[in-house]
Amino acid sequence: MTKEDFEKSKQDVEEILVLFRDFVAQNRPQLDIHNVATGETWFGTAALERKLCDEIKTVDDVLMDYVDKGFNVYEVKYEPPITTPFGKLVLGGASANLSSRTDESDSPWLRKTIRWVVRTIASEIQVELESFRNVNVPLEQRYMAKDETANRIKSD
Fold first, then answer.
1. What share of the chain is helix, strand, coil (3-state, %, to 5)?
2. From residue 118, how far is each of 23, 98, 125 by CA, in Å?
3. Which residue among 16, 39, 114, 124 is buried most deeply as judged by most CB within 10 Å?
4. Which residues have a Cβ under 8 Å from the Cβ of 95 and sit 6 or more positions away?
5. Nearest CA to 52 among 63, 40, 43?
6. Contact indicator for 108, 92 with CB cutoff of 8 Å
7. What is d(CA 86, CA 23) in angstroms, rounded to the nearest whole number?
8. What is the per-residue pLDDT for 89?
9. Phi and psi (nearest 5°) for 122?
10. Where along the chain do its domains lie?
């Protein structure tokens, strides 16, 4: 980074600070903008004390307030269409998404194959875990390394 690059970046940041300060001053006239627009960042109670926010709430609290007031609260989720060839092969058509597809009859063959492999491996792991549970050897001894060098090395 050259000195000119640094100066340009510094100028850009200062312009952003001025734009933000003017926006805050316009939308929060109760503030003494020159005391809070110093370039510092305040979060939580520090922001509340400086009147940079009205209250501190979680998203859940805000949504529950709307529900309590009688509003209908819906979840909106955007899932971009699948455009890659591999995505179409695994997930299906361009409008397919994992969360809404529950019917396997319209799943593409690769997705069905992957699901079968995962289920098969999971069942094999389950069988192995069951065999370990039936062993009377304590868990810490099952994986204990044994020094058998004395049996393998003999000196005359």
1. 55, 0, 45
2. 53, 16, 10
3. 114
4. 81, 82
5. 43
6. yes
7. 46
8. 65
9. -60, -40
10. 85-135
If DSSP codes are grouped into helix, strand and coil, which group holds residue 4?
A: helix
Per residue in 119-144, pLDDT (tens digit) is: 888 888 877 777 666 566 666 666 66
Q: Write out the two tokens for 65.
A: 């307030």
Residue pair 132/142 in contact (Cβ under 8 Å)? The answer is: yes
- The H or E element spanning position 12 is helix 3-27
Give the max Cα distance, the chain.
Answer: 95
Model pLDDT for residues 77-118, shown as the tens digit of each residue: 887 777 777 766 666 654 444 444 444 455 577 778 888 888
- Measured CA to CA, the distance from residue 92 to residue 54 in angstroms comes to 47
- Tell me the whole-structure pTM to 2 decimals: 0.38
pLDDT in tens, 5-20: 899 999 999 899 889 8
